[in-house]
Design brief:
With 191 residues, this protein is an alpha/beta fold. The chain is 45% helix and 13% strand. It has helices at 2-10, 24-32, 42-50, 54-65, 78-86, 120-127, 147-156, 171-190; strands at 18-21, 37-40, 70-75, 93-97, 134-137, 161-162. Strands 1-2-3-4-5-6 form a six-stranded parallel sheet.
């Protein structure tokens, strides 16, 4: 990440990014690197929520807030969002693994390593009750879902932002599909 930021700065770019943080050290590095936000790493938040460790999760959220950045909580399971909300740990935004189940390995009896969101309908329904915006991550289900379909699915189900997935090898096609999809909304807004 540091190389990418340095390269962007050398050509006059000013990238905006939200950093995935496991601890205070990560948050401090994110702030020093110019992040506009920091969020608790999903696997970290999920583990603390599953253990019922409200104190540790609250301490981590507080440490991230101490940087002055916008703070989020990541989750691979909506139950982590529910745990946080029930315990008064409400961040500026949520980062949630969210994808459809419209791919072959999602329907296998055993859980595969490319399924993070086992109940997208339930997750979307719950997230609509939250006033905070949320970012959809892991939308391609490990590369199993077409990017344009995955991003449309997340936006149609309430995600304010859809993160471009690490496994999206068709970035140009994906961005073009998203731009094309948003053109009617832009024309309507101009009227």
């Amino acid at each position: 990440a540091a190389r990418i930021l340095d390269a962007a700065k050398r050509v006059g770019g000013k990238p905006s990014f939200f950093a995935n943080c496991a601890d205070e050290k990560d948050a401090a590095l994110a702030k020093a690197s110019g992040a506009v936000g920091a969020y608790v790493r999903p696997e970290k938040a999920d583990a603390l929520a599953k253990a019922g460790d409200k104190a540790a999760l609250a301490a981590l959220v507080a440490a991230l807030k101490a940087t002055g950045l916008k703070v989020g909580v990541g989750a691979e399971d909506v139950s982590t969002v529910k745990f946080c909300a029930a315990n008064g740990l409400v961040p500026d935004y949520w980062v949630l693994a969210f994808h459809s189940l419209d791919y072959p390995s999602a329907t296998l009896p055993q859980r595969c390593n490319n399924i993070w969101c086992t109940d997208p309908k339930g997750a979307a329904t719950y997230m609509k009750t939250r006033p905070e915006p949320w970012v959809a991550i892991r939308g391609l289900a490990g590369g199993a879902i077409d990017p344009a379909k995955a991003y449309a699915f997340a936006r149609e189900n309430g995600a304010a932002v859809v993160a471009i997935d690490l496994l999206d090898y068709r970035i140009v096609e994906t961005v073009n599909a998203i731009v094309k999809r948003n053109e009617p909304a832009k024309k309507e807004a101009k009227k």
